[in-house]
Amino acid sequence: MPLESATTINGLVATNPVSTDALAAADDHIRLIKATILNTFPNITGAMTATHTVLNGLDARVTAIESGVHASGTKMLFQQSTAPTGWTKDTTNYNDHALRVVTGTASSGGTNAFSTLDATASGTVSTSVSGTNAAVYLSNAQLPNNWYFKPNTPGGSLSDNYANFNYQAHHVDWITYRIQGGGQAHNHTWSGSATSTFTGSANALDVQYVDVIIATKD
């Protein structure tokens, strides 16, 4: 009576039992078949509803997903510490970076790490600032009174009259003049050094965040 030794269904021999086996040996074969089926499908706890067509095409569909949807070299974000199977974690670039959505070419840039951009009581602005304020016309009300006096003496220049002021003051007449401007606007330029220090009250941003990794499809 041939009775194979098998633990899964691939170990069963299709020609067993032979026609010369006694009827009493049939229970050994039945128990062997049941045991190999249970060992082969240990996690099947209910009825299988998939058809043979679905099952036969499953391997091809999984292969297409793994190789077609995510082609080799594809980069993706994963909210986990290690890359999934078939992917390699990028540990060279993008550490402590924020994400920026663009409509053009994908790239990277910037200087300061994301975790360091938290407002503090004092710090340094590493940039130069300059500019010009708008032109301003001063009104008469904003101008101080500016007067000078000229001796009403025929002939001579203003400087001559000023030079003779000490001894002419007691007997000459004086003409009063008010100085008037040309009515032109003026402005002022302003600038700061390439590195300007600022101080103020602390304003901790402490933005909530989720750490992710970038992995590349193998």
Give me the strand/helix succession.
Answer: HHEEEEEHHEEEE
Instruction: Compute the average pLDDT.
Output: 74
Measure the end-to-end span.
53 Å
The percentage helix is 10-25%
Strand order of the largest sheet: 1-9-2
Helix count equals 4
Q: Give me the count of strands.
A: 9
Q: Rough shape?
A: rod-shaped
- C-alpha Rg (nearest Å): 48 Å
Spans where pLDDT lies below 50 across 5 or more residues:
155-172
Strand content bin: 15-25%
Q: Largest sheet, described in full?
A: 3 strands, antiparallel
* Secondary structure category: alpha+beta
Explain how this protein is built:
The strands form four sheets. The chain has a three-stranded antiparallel β-sheet with strand order 1-9-2, with no helix packed on it. A two-stranded antiparallel sheet has the order 3-8. It starts with 25 loop residues before the first helix and ends with a strand. The chain contains four helices and nine strands, in the order H-H-E-E-E-E-E-H-H-E-E-E-E. With 218 residues, it is of the alpha+beta class.
